[in-house]
Amino acid sequence: MAEFWLISAPGEKTCQQTWDKMNMATSQTNLSTNHKFNIPELKVGTLDVLVGLSDELAKLDSFVESVVRKVAQYMADVLEDSRDKVQENLLANGVDLVTYVTRFQWDMAKYPIKQSLKNISEIMSKQVSQIDNDLKARASAYNSLKGNLQSLERKSVGSLLTRSLADIVKKNDFVLDSEYLTTLLVVVPKTSYPDWQKTYETLSEMVVPRSTKLLFEDQDSGLFSVTLFRKAIDDFKHKARENKFMVRDFQYNEEEMKADKEEMTRLSTDKKKQFVCMQLSKLYSLLNMRKSSTMMLMSNLKTHQPHSQLERPWGPLVRWLKVNFSEAFIAWIHIKALRVFTESVLRYGLPVNFQAMLLQPIKKNVKKLREVLQDLYKHLDSNATVIDASMDIPGLNLSQQEYYPYAYYKIDCNLLDFK
Which residues form the signal peptide (predicted)? Predict the structure, then answer.
C-alpha cells in the first residue's frame, strides 16, 4: 500500500501552471509520483462558517479514519487463517485503494455539491457514525459466538481434569439405575498407574473388586472408572485426593451430552455462515486461476470473450465489512477533499483559485521532497515553520505538528496492523 500527501497551492495565471511547476520540480527528479486531485466547485459560505468548519472537519477526519481502520482490522480478525485475502477485499467503489485515491472523482449522488459544506460534512458524519454503531453491534454478536465456541472447543481438547467427557465415555461404562451402586471417573497420572491398580480397592470400604477400567488417556493422564457403593463416595474421594487421584464430578446423562454436542455443531455452523467456508473459498480460487489461464490462452488465439470472475462464497459478516469499508473509505477521502478546499480558501482567499495535488513520495527521498516543496511555496508564508500543535490558531489546520506554507494533509492507505 502507500502513503500520499494531499497538498494545494494557489493558481498562478492558471491552475495548470501551478500543477506544471510542482510536477516538474518533483516528478522529474524522482521525488514523487503526482496526480491532480479533482475537487468540484463547492459552496464557500461565510468566513466565520469556514473557520468553524475547519476545526470540525479535523475532528471528523480523525473519527472517520479510526472507523476505516477498525473495519479493515476487524475483517483481518474475522478471516483468521485467510488473512492473505484481506487486502484484496479492502476496496473502494470496486477498485483498490491506491487507484481510488489517485483517480478520485467527487460522488455527486452521495454528497450533492449544491448543499452547503456544513451539510455535506454532516451527511458524512451521520453515515460513518451509523457504520461505527453497526460494527460495534455485529462485532459484539460475532465475538460472543466465537467466544462460546472457543470455550466449548477448549472443553473438548483440554486436560482430562477439565475437558468434556461426552465424546469419551459410553453408557456401558457405568452402573446406572442402581439404588446402591454407582460408578465414579478418576483421573490418574500415567506415572501412578501401578499405584492405582494396587490401592483403588482399599481406598475405601465397599469398593467393588476388579471394577476399574481404563477408558481413555492423553499424554499425561488416564481416565479410569471404578464402581462402589453410594454411601462410600465421600470417603473414597477424600482418600483418592490424598493419593493424588482426582475424581471427576460427572454424572452420565445422555440428554445433556447430546445437547452439548448439538450446541457445538450449531455454534460452529453459525460461525462459518458469518464469514466463509474455507474449502469452498480455496476451490473458487483454483477455479478462477484455471479460468484466467484459459482466458489468456483464448486471448492469444483472438477467440476469447470476457467473462466475469466467479464470486467468492463470503458470508454475511464479511460481505457487510466489504461494503461498509468501501463506504467509510470513500467518505474519508471526500473529507480530505473538503479539508483541502476549506483550508485553501482560508489561506489563499477569494475568488476560489487553487490547484489540489496528490503526491506519492518516493520513500528514500521524503526529506528532499519536503525541502523542494518548501522552496517552491515559501513565498506564500515566509513565517511557515514547525509549530507546536497545542497552539490554537483559528482556521488553520494544526492537527499535526508541522505547518507548511501550502495546505497539506496525509492519506495513509496502510490500514492493517498485523501483530
Answer: none
Pick the CATH number of 3-144+315-387+400-412 from 1.20.1460.10, 3.30.365.10, 1.10.357.10, 3.40.50.2300: 1.20.1460.10
Cell of 138: 455485529
Most confident of 44-53, 246-255, 266-275, 305-314: 44-53
Strand ranges inside 287-373, DSSP E: 354-361
Task: Answer yes or no: pTM beyond 0.85.
Answer: no
Alpha-carbon span 236 to 226, nearest angstrom = 10
Look at residue 82 and tell me whether its pLDDT is greater than 50: yes
Domain ranges of the chain: 3-144+315-387+400-412, 171-251
pLDDT for the residue 389: 43
What nine digits make up the cell of 406?
501550502
> What mean pLDDT is predicted for residues 163-177?
88
Q: How far is CA 10 from CA 39, 57, 58, 369, in A?
A: 14, 21, 21, 19
Beta strands in 241-292 (DSSP E): 246-248
Architecture of domain 171-251: 2-Layer Sandwich (3.30)
Query: Among residues 116, 17, 109, 122, which one has the least CA distance to residue 342?
Result: 116
Where in 316-372 does DSSP place strands (E)?
354-361
